[in-house]
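Page header: ASSEMBLY MODEL / two components / 830 residues total.
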Amino acid sequence: MGNVVIGQSGGPTAVINASLAGAIRCAMDKGIKKIFGMHHGIDGFIKHDLIDMDEYLVDVNDLSLLKRTPAAFLGSCRYKLPKIEGNEDLYESMFEYMDEMDIEYFLYNGGNDSMDTILKLSEYAERTGRNQKFVGIPKTIDNDLAITDHTPGYGSAAKFIGTCVKEMICDNESFAGKDPRIVIVEIMGRNAGWLTAASALARDTDCTGPDLIYLPEVNFNIEDFLARMDKLIKTKKSIVVCVSEGIHLADGTLVCELANENALVDAFGHKHLSGCGYSLFRLVADNFGINPRVVDLSLLQRCATHLASRTDVEEAYSAGYIACETAISGESAKMITLRVPRRVPYNCFYEATNIADIANIEKKMPRSWITKDGTNVTEDFIKYVSPLVIGTLPPYYVGGLPRHMTLRNKRKEIY
Amino acid sequence: MGNVVIGQSGGPTAVINASLAGAIRCAMDKGIKKIFGMHHGIDGFIKHDLIDMDEYLVDVNDLSLLKRTPAAFLGSCRYKLPKIEGNEDLYESMFEYMDEMDIEYFLYNGGNDSMDTILKLSEYAERTGRNQKFVGIPKTIDNDLAITDHTPGYGSAAKFIGTCVKEMICDNESFAGKDPRIVIVEIMGRNAGWLTAASALARDTDCTGPDLIYLPEVNFNIEDFLARMDKLIKTKKSIVVCVSEGIHLADGTLVCELANENALVDAFGHKHLSGCGYSLFRLVADNFGINPRVVDLSLLQRCATHLASRTDVEEAYSAGYIACETAISGESAKMITLRVPRRVPYNCFYEATNIADIANIEKKMPRSWITKDGTNVTEDFIKYVSPLVIGTLPPYYVGGLPRHMTLRNKRKEIY
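Prediction written out in full:
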């Protein structure tokens, strides 16, 4: 048995390091000699920039801290490998480096763009008769990977979004004595509305939940929005609207482009769009004489490990473990997918699926999980998402703040 | 013994309801017959809009849920009583209503503006020989009340800010492989920098902490900022800058006004400033050709009860309890202040201080707790803030999301 190398790619999640911990634990269990991390994904691998995990892990207990650490411990990248044809030199040099480091198992943790790396490397290995095995571990808060029931990272982001929206509704209602108070919450999601849909989790006996939810899967209609706001303003004192950053009109115009005249010009002379939240601010201010508050959940929705879903952490860990096991068992060109045969009581199974069926494919919210009028989600979606947000895995608190495991903490320097 | 009335005022905090729970618990312990809540503070009281707490609390266990509920359960307001002279009718009618409802103890939970309510009502009572007692309970995330060592609400906001900044630094470092990545975090605080200063809690063996911290107590110097950024960009790949919303130049110009040409015109025809974060975006983009990411912690910093500091929750509860006890013991025109004779090990005592020494006074960060160059905080500040963020009081999770106690949950309708 050769060594294992693992990389993290694309936007981090609250649980991406749990997958890393799972893969490492499996490699330890199977007696793998060396576990390497790619420093900043495939980009670092190409530059021969590897991290020797021995320098950070002295025993398996360290994995518990890694599981509770946000963002990509190894460093991430957004580099996509060029096509094989015409770039054989690059591929050849990568495989030579694998041989040099005695790397037999190559694991890559990322979204649909990152799975393209597994696809290309495994194709090249097959063509050239290499024996290395390539397995992908799913990861994205966007939940837009094909075949898998859901992706590790989504459950924690959904829990954070649902919780924060619920807390902000409480806050907004506190003041709702006189004029209506309007909060517009902008949530990540360019093409798929999974994250914004999770704001509906706030709805329960103690909370109305968001009044309107707009997803990119449905065209945004300005007149319809204004008519609904008009009705809400006349009947409610606290109004909360949740919107995906990528909502657009029927002609494809992004809503964030509507307030374009106010856009900042950025460092490259491009208009820097201030987000669809500000376009809705504009519409509400101009039509109703009320200034809404715009809240952008921004980076927090993908790195708030302090509120990770335990279900999500454990599934991320399991996906990492099983990916490593799958590679060691001799399979290649696979990604681990999650299958949920039943949601109540909840059961989740892990399968190895052909990478070609997953890479570069984007899964959107089914239209049937969005209400007909396009301003809310259905009970079926709530049934889908609910088990994914169950449980917490509290951080290890030191001095009141979560302790993390970072590249700053080389064990040799501590012990 | 007459009845108790309690009101919540000003911007909510993560623990304002813990003070409400403490006051209610004391009233129960002392055998008070009726506990009324003001629906939206003094504004609701004037309108005779009271909430009978019997309708929400069946036993003391409900107080545990109330302690874990963000924002103002009773509803808040920003109404300031007019001066007594010339408004005797208003004051007389308020006292008549107290007589009518047999209210003897009047508790008000708020910041320095709200303490003005306690000051004026107790003055009027003294002038007119009324026997009602008026006691204030401190509350504000801004930590800007005089005399008290700190204010309930601040510790939880500090814990949330420190934690989120630490998580975002992790996230930003994940990508720091190529060009420098810059995040600008905008934090509440118009005149006092206590909240932004708490971002320094992120600094530890596992995290560099913010690279620059700008508070309103020190004039912001554009040239100095650019020189520091230039140095950071040349030496670091991940740069995080934390700024108070109220930072200003030496001539008093708010930094948020600098990017004014891009301001949205709001519902009242005023320029709607997009925040000092965007002014710094502008400066960095224009001078270095890099687009920073601007993150505004917005409402979350005052309502993220899911990450409340246990120390803060218990102190808020105690302050509420002792305020009620103080009023019942016959004292009036007081606010409960916290005294911390020693920070290691931490001890906190509660005292009743004359309201006239507190109302309408704003306490800023001591200049000596800010580094000489004005871009960081000192160890003395860290020693001050550290004990305030210790411990957690996890929410009651139902279906993966925090359960709250809201006005929607009348007990008669549940049981």
